[in-house]
Every structure is written in structure tokens, then in C-alpha cells.
Write a structure and sequence with these properties.
The chain is α+β, with helices and mostly antiparallel strands and 356 residues long. Helix content is 22%, strand content 28%. The longest helix has 22 residues.
Length: 356
């Protein structure tokens, strides 16, 4: 059986606009296996994005309907896993085209073997309808149900031009999909690997891949985020509010898709409280902002809950009078940068203090 090693890969690179897919004879330009890692023998990378510090929620159990009903930005009913691994670190996504006559089961088993031989373990595995949600549609589908593929490679991360190889690699319908999430500790760093493999189903512009097996490999290598000067001092916030009427904060941190404030935010909360104590007449709106990942209604609700959490932390734990703070949520409606890159999305995920 061909052997592989752990891999960090997936992404979206441009192809010729409106050109039908063709069988590749080499990896996508710029795509490569990370150092010390490998792939299924004979496979080629057809879609790739690598190496950004990012966050992802990897499903580690069957997807179930979210109640009350929610819809994503493509009008798909939202499904979610009870066991979801919310992770931050170096995120890589890659889609591999396997050699002819290879099956999704072979792809998953080879990655599983490589991880277990490295001392890792399988956390969860499923096949087809047993995975929950939509298992047969490619990325970017609408009006149905969210599936594991949508969570691993969301529609908003697809920027490949239609209808070339990278685009077809993630949008073709899927037969016999199989999914596994794996974990391994290497050199003191914990890495999670999610593998979704399927056989492509006949598609008008993607016929070259009909009957061929793809493996989407998502790898999250946990490591500390680069420490930036994200905690603003009370004096810095005061000057910004006096000059601009508001200040954007990036030192208030939340887990992916959650509203609970992370412990690392304590320093910034302390500086906000200090500002309020120094300026007893100051009243502020606490405004939550998100990037555009997910549905607009969901992001609006999430941003409001995050703003509520900040107000609660300041009033219940820091002694700030409740009538001096007002929580507001803007969702993704007021970006300060393009959502087309991770750098831009990171700038848009913020909390602003706005003078009332």
C-alpha cells in the first residue's frame, strides 16, 4: 500500500476563466508538500492554500440539525457536530487528485496509517449519509443542507476561477464520501488532520474528473500566534476616542464562532476599565464586528453576543456602571478591509469602543 506522511494543505489558486477542467500532469503552481510530510503515491495537488495563521472548527462527530433552524449564506440548513474541535494555528488546505482506480477508502486509510505510525490517533470516522448533513454536493451548493465539505472548505474561501481544475476540484458532486479526523503530536506540536475523500460525479465542465477520487486534506498545526501589540493602553484608547470618536480593539479574543471571552483578553479589559475610571463622564457603545464567514443573520447575532459579553465583563467584574455602556452588534456590515484574504478578515474581526 502506498505510504504518506502528515500534510498541511488546501487552497485556491487561479485557473483559466471559463476553461473546462483537464487532467493535470503536475502539481498546481506553488503547491508543495510541507517539509517532512508526503502524499498518497502518484497523486497531484489540484487546489492549494497554505501556511496562514487561522482558525477552523473541525467536526469530530456526526453532523446534526441545529435547532431552531438556521440557514447559511447559501440558504443551506445549518448542521453542526456536537463534538467540534475549534483550533488555531497554521492552517493548510489541499485537494489531491489520486491515480486512476483508487478509492476514497484507500485515501483515508493511507492517511490514517501514516498518522498512527507517527504515534497519532484517529478521533472520528464516517462514511456517506452516516456523516450527517449533505454528503453528495460539492462546495458552493445552495438551498439544501450544510455538509462536512462545507465546513472544511467554506464557500467564502473559494476564489478559483470557473471552471478550471482548482474550481472543479472542490465543486464537483461526490460519490462514496469518507471522512476522518486524526491527531498527532510531533516535536511538541499538536497537529490535527482532517481528510475528506470522494469520487467525482459527472459534471458539465468538469467531465475530465468524472470517476476519479479526490482527497481534501486540511491540516491545523497548533502553534503560538505571533505576539503583536494588540492590547491598547487606556491613554491610547482615550486619545483615539477623543480624535476619532472610536477605537478598534484586537485584544478582546473569542473562540471561533463563540461569544465567551478568552482569558487572554483580561489585559485589554483592565485597560478599558482604567479608561472609564479616568474619565467618569465617558459613555461608550461596545460594538462587535465579524468577518463575512457564515450567514449575515448569524454574524449579526454573534457580534451582538460578543459585545454583550464585553459589557458584562466590565460591569459585573470591573465595577463599571451599566448605564455607561451599550452593546451593539454590526456583524459583517462594517468591514475595515477586504474579506478576500485572511489578513483582511482578521482586521474585520474586532470590537470597537464608540463614544456615545
Amino acid at each position: 500500500m502506498p505510504r504518506i506522511a502528515l500534510s498541511l494543505i488546501l487552497g485556491i489558486a487561479p485557473s483559466l476563466a471559463f476553461a473546462d477542467a483537464v487532467l493535470p500532469d503536475a502539481d498546481l503552481d506553488g503547491a508543495r508538500d510541507p517539509a517532512g510530510l508526503g502524499r498518497y503515491e502518484g497523486s497531484l495537488i489540484v487546489e492549494y492554500r497554505a501556511g496562514a495563521y487561522d482558525e477552523i472548527a473541525l467536526p469530530a462527530s456526526v453532523l446534526e440539525r441545529v435547532e431552531p433552524e438556521q440557514r447559511d449564506g447559501m440558504n443551506n440548513r445549518v448542521f453542526a457536530a456536537r463534538d467540534t474541535r475549534t483550533l488555531e494555528g497554521t492552517l493548510t488546505r489541499a485537494v489531491y487528485l489520486l491515480p486512476p482506480e483508487r478509492t476514497p477508502l484507500e485515501a483515508v486509510r493511507n492517511y490514517q496509517q501514516a498518522i498512527e505510525e507517527a504515534g497519532g490517533q484517529r478521533l472520528f470516522e464516517c462514511r456517506g449519509d452516516a456523516c450527517g448533513g449533505d454528503t453528495g454536493s460539492g462546495a458552493g451548493h445552495g438551498g439544501g443542507q450544510v455538509g462536512i465539505g462545507d465546513l472544511l472548505f467554506p464557500k467564502d474561501r473559494i476564489d478559483a476561477k470557473a471552471f478550471g481544475n482548482p474550481y472543479c476540484a472542490v465543486t464537483t458532486d461526490r460519490v462514496d464520501p469518507r471522512y476522518a479526523i486524526l491527531r498527532v503530536q510531533r516535536g511538541g506540536v499538536e497537529t490535527h488532520v482532517a481528510v475528506l475523500a470522494w469520487t467525482a460525479k459527472d459534471s458539465l465542465y468538469c467531465k475530465a474528473f468524472d470517476g476519479r477520487t479526490f482527497a481534501l486534506v486540511v491540516t491545523l498545526e497548533g502553534k503560538p500566534r505571533e505576539q503583536k501589540m494588540v492590547t491598547l493602553k487606556a491613554s491610547e484608547m482615550g486619545r483615539a476616542i477623543a480624535g476619532d470618536g472610536k477605537v478598534a480593539l484586537y485584544g478582546l479574543l473569542f473562540d471561533l464562532d463563540q461569544a465567551a471571552i478568552k482569558p487572554e483578553s483580561e489585559a485589554q479589559l483592565g485597560e478599558i476599565a482604567a479608561l472609564m475610571e479616568e474619565e467618569p463622564a465617558l459613555k461608550l457603545m461596545v460594538v462587535g464586528h465579524t468577518d463575512n464567514a457564515g450567514g449575515a443573520a448569524h454574524n449579526l447575532d454573534l457580534s451582538k453576543r460578543r459585545a454583550d459579553a464585553v459589557v458584562d465583563a466590565l460591569t459585573s467584574k470591573r465595577g463599571i456602571a451599566a448605564d455607561r455602556l451599550l452593546a451593539q452588534g454590526m456583524g459583517s456590515a462594517s468591514p475595515v478591509a477586504s474579506n478576500d484574504s485572511e489578513e483582511g478578515r482578521a482586521k474585520n474581526r474586532r470590537v470597537e469602543l464608540v463614544k456615545q
